[in-house]
Design goal:
17 strands; alpha/beta; 15 helices; 424 residues; 4-stranded parallel sheet; single chain
Amino acid sequence: MSILIKNGHVIYGDGLEVVRADVLIEGNRIVKVAKGITEGADTVIDATGRVVSPGFVNLHTHSPMGLFRGLADDLPLMEWLEKHIWPREAKLTRKDIKAGAYLGALEMIKGGTTTFLDMYFHMDAVAEAVLDAGLRGYLGYGMIDLGDPEKTEKEVREALREMGAIERLGSDRVQFVFAPHAPYTCSLALLERVRELASEHGKLITIHVSETMSEVGRIVERYGKSPVELLDGIDFWGRDVIIAHGVWLDSRDVQILARHGVSVAHNPGSNMKLASGVMPLGKLLNAGINVGLGTDGAASNNNLDMLEEMKLAALLHKVNNLDPTIADAETVFRMATVNGAKALRLRAGVIKEGYLADLAIIDFNSPHLRPVNNVVSHLVYSANGNDVESTIVAGEILMLDREVLTLDEEKVLSRAEKTAESLS
């Protein structure tokens, strides 16, 4: 299938140059970006008055947790987890999780997200929803053993089972990643096994690290080291690791992460809502660390809107540092696109010949996006997910003119509603 997107404002190349141009897609790749492309195509999209943007990469979320949206708000993280979320999660069936995954996929398509890194349970079910939706999903089973050796073996077996199930689906749009939950919920034995297995199978690793002050305190009290130092001591770190949050990192932690080429998924909305703290973004960027952007789950955000997340990231760091120049629009836009793709080793996040055709077309024909003085600035500071008009992944149109083509929206919403009711 070929697609020709005509007459748009295209955010082109590594320099984020905004050009009036057409974009030609053949198969799953962008093959040409130029003015006045005359080649024929199976589908032609008129993008007049619209911006053609790289699709957004949500580098940390828990997509089925949309089922818990609005429950147990306004609580500290550990109280939120231990008293409200974990008890509800204990009731979840594979069918429930799949219903939540469809809801998350629908929300992401409508908001221009094309790829996401997920951590949850029954990820083979999530993978099936991802394939139906047409998205890219990097899917990790959230491993928790709480120091129990029998549970360690059980978690390893389950992770390997899910890895096999996902690989048998035979699609490059779904990839398994190892996803130990966090140093405070996983034994060192489990973390060492994860490191070995990821290296053996060539898989990425994602893990929550240093999200809250109390979490760091637990680790320091138990081991006499910060979580980053602890994991460094077992040779856990590498370029294949993506940590979520990284809020409470000191200078030594930052040096360790930079030395090993670890990527960090920043989650400003969730961190603010749970009052977890403010990630030292400036220190990470100055150290050359690759920082992407994630929403976290819809139970702690409470949406999966990457456009909104960009604005939150920019504003949070400006006010926290009393510096309006930090977290500028281009920096934050890169976090939401190419930096996330880089962390996932994905040739995407940029509109350029040879890159994957993962795009979002955003309608600028609204008062809050006019006049078009600065496209990237408008996307970061003025736009929201409702402005996304079309979403394309791997050269397939998932949403066109705000109509989702790959999922039955009414059915997805109804199923999620009934599932949530059954869990209350």
